[in-house]
């Protein structure tokens, strides 16, 4: 007979797998994943710029476009999972960092310029 973990009633040999899964499903980690996946906007921009001259819906064959769509979907599911447990005021305040992260990503990866006119407090 295997020793049991009294708190969770799982066999101890599976405890590391269960702990990893609980950590991955932690609401704040899911919220962070949702925020980090703002890279989807950058993927979409790259994909559209590459396939800009494609006729009709030719831009849909771009790997960058599909990577961006996948990131948006992952972000949505992470967001919905996090909303189950994280207070709404916390979730929306953390999600508001998306705007800053997209601007920084556009500057770093796309070479876009960030001028003072783009920031509302100037």
Top keywords for this entry?
mainly alpha, 6 helices, 0% strand
Topology of helices and strands:
Elements: H1 15-24, H2 27-36, H3 39-50, H4 63-83, H5 88-95, H6 97-110
Verbal overview:
This protein is an all-alpha fold and 122 residues long. It has 6 helices and no strands. α2 packs antiparallel against α4 (63-83). The protein is flat.
Count of DSSP-assigned helices:
6
Shape: flat
Distance between the termini: 68 Å
**What class do helices, strands and sheet pairing give?**
mainly alpha
Indicate the low-confidence ranges by residue numbers: 5-15
Number of domains: 1
Q: What portion of residues is helical?
A: 55-70%
Q: What's this, in brief?
A:
61% of the residues lie in helices and 0% in strands. It has helices spanning 15-24, 27-36, 39-50, 63-83, 88-95, 97-110. The chain starts with 14 loop residues before the first helix and ends in a 12-residue tail after the last helix.
């Amino acid at each position: 007979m295997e020793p049991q973990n009294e708190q969770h009633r799982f066999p101890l040999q599976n405890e590391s797998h269960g702990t990893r899964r609980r950590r991955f499903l932690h609401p704040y980690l899911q919220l962070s994943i949702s925020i980090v996946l703002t890279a989807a906007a950058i993927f979409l921009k790259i994909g559209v710029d590459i396939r800009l001259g494609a006729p009709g819906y030719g831009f849909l064959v771009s790997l960058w476009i599909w990577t961006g769509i996948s990131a948006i979907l992952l972000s949505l599911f992470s967001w919905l999972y996090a909303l189950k447990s994280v207070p709404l005021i916390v979730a929306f305040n953390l999600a508001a960092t998306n705007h800053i992260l997209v601007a920084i990503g556009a500057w770093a990866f796309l070479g876009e310029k960030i001028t003072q006119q783009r920031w509302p407090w100037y």
